[in-house]
C-alpha cells in the first residue's frame, strides 16, 4: 500500500508539472467508462465540472491522502491510493513502488481510471489495477471534513514535540505495531514504515504501547522522523534507501538474515491481516498488522 513517502512523491510530481496549469480535458477508464468503485459517491458530471477549465493552484497531502485546490471551484478532488493507485505523467515518469511498476510505455497507461490534460501540454493519469483506491470530491475546507479531519499528526509536516508524541501512546494498551498503524495516531504510517521504525528503535512489535519508557518513546520518535524524511528525500525510490534498512529484506516473506540475525515471522493484531515488521534485539522479526 502506498504510504506517506509514496504519496508525497505523487504530490511532488503534481507540484512540479501541473501547478498553475488549466485543465482542458478530463477522461476516465481506458474504454471511456466511469468506475463507480474508484469514484466514491461522485457523479461523473460533477467530477468533470469540478476540474474542467479550472486551474490547479495547489496540491496538498496529509498522511496517505492528497487533494488539489482548483481556482474558482467549491469542490476539491481528494485521492487515496488504496493498494496499487499511482500517478504518472506522460513523458515524465511515474511514482515508484517496490511491489509493482506503472507501465507508461503506452498512453494512457494500462488500468488508467482518470486522465487529466492541462493547457501546458501535461497529461496526468491515475492508474489502479486492484481498484482499492478512492477519489472523492470535498466541498469547502478539506481539512475540516472527514477523512482528513479524523487523521492524527503527519510525521513529515507536523511531528509533535517529545511530550505531545508520548501522550499519544500513554493510554494505548495494544501492541505498539498495531497502534502505529492507527491513522488517528500518526497519519501516513503504514506497514513498511512501522516495520522500519520499530527495527531502528529496537522495539518488539508486540510490546504494549503504554509500557514504552520515555527513552523508548524518544527513540521511536527519532526513528519515525528519520525514516520518513529519508524516504521522502529519496522520492520513495527504494533503490536510494540506506543499505542497512530492513526494507530491503522484508518483501515476500523469504527466509533470510538482517545484521546476522534470522528474520522471524509473527502475527500482531488481526490474524488475517499480516504485514512485515522488523525488530532487532535478538533477531529481526516480521509481523503483520491492520492499518486502520
UniProtKB/TrEMBL annotation:
Transmembrane segments: none annotated. It catalyses: Hydrolysis of DNA containing ring-opened 7-methylguanine residues, releasing 2,6-diamino-4-hydroxy-5-(N-methyl)formamidopyrimidine. Keywords: DNA damage, DNA repair, DNA-binding, Glycosidase, Hydrolase, Lyase, Multifunctional enzyme. Coiled coil: none annotated. The keyword Lyase applies. Residues 2-133 form the Formamidopyrimidine-DNA glycosylase catalytic domain. One of its GO terms (cellular component) is nucleus. The keyword Acyltransferase does not apply. One of its GO terms (molecular function) is zinc ion binding. GO terms for biological process: base-excision repair. It comes from the Eukaryota. It holds the Pfam family H2TH. Belongs to the FPG family. This is Formamidopyrimidine-DNA glycosylase catalytic domain-containing protein. It comes from Micromonas commoda (strain RCC299 / NOUM17 / CCMP2709). The lineage of its organism: Eukaryota, Viridiplantae, Chlorophyta, Mamiellophyceae, Mamiellales.
Amino acid at each position: 500500500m502506498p504510504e506517506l513517502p509514496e504519496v508525497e512523491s505523487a504530490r511532488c510530481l503534481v507540484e512540479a508539472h501541473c501547478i498553475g496549469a488549466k485543465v482542458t480535458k478530463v477522461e476516465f477508464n481506458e474504454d471511456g467508462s466511469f468506475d463507480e468503485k474508484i469514484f466514491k459517491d461522485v457523479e461523473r458530471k460533477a467530477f468533470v465540472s469540478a476540474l474542467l477549465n479550472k486551474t490547479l493552484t495547489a496540491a496538498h497531502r496529509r498522511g496517505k491522502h492528497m487533494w488539489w485546490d482548483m481556482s474558482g471551484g467549491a469542490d476539491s478532488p481528494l485521492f487515496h491510493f488504496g493498494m496499487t493507485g499511482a500517478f504518472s505523467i506522460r513523458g515524465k515518469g511515474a511514482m515508484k513502488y517496490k511491489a509493482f511498476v506503472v507501465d507508461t510505455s503506452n498512453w494512457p497507461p494500462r488500468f488508467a481510471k482518470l486522465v487529466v490534460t492541462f493547457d501546458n501540454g501535461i497529461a496526468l493519469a491515475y492508474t489502479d489495477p486492484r481498484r482499492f483506491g478512492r477519489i472523492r470530491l470535498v466541498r469547502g475546507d478539506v481539512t475540516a471534513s472527514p477523512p482528513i479531519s479524523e487523521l492524527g499528526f503527519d510525521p513529515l509536516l507536523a511531528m509533535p514535540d517529545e511530550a505531545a508524541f508520548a501522550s499519544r501512546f500513554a493510554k494505548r494498551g495494544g501492541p505498539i505495531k498495531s497502534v502505529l498503524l492507527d491513522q488517528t495516531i500518526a497519519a501516513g504510517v503504514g506497514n513498511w514504515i512501522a516495520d522500519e521504525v520499530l527495527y531502528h528503535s529496537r522495539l518488539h512489535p508486540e510490546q504494549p504501547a503504554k509500557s514504552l519508557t520515555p527513552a523508548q518513546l524518544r527513540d521511536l520518535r527519532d526513528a519515525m522522523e528519520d525514516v520518513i524524511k529519508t524516504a521522502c528525500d529519496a522520492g520513495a525510490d527504494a533503490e536510494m534507501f540506506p543499505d542497512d534498512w530492513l526494507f530491503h529484506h522484508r518483501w515476500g516473506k523469504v527466509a533470510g538474515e538482517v545484521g546476522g540475525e534470522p528474520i522471524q515471522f509473527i502475527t500482531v493484531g488481526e490474524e488475517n491481516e499480516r504485514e512485515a515488521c522488523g525488530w532487532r534485539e535478538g533477531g529481526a522479526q516480521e509481523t503483520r498488522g491492520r492499518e486502520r
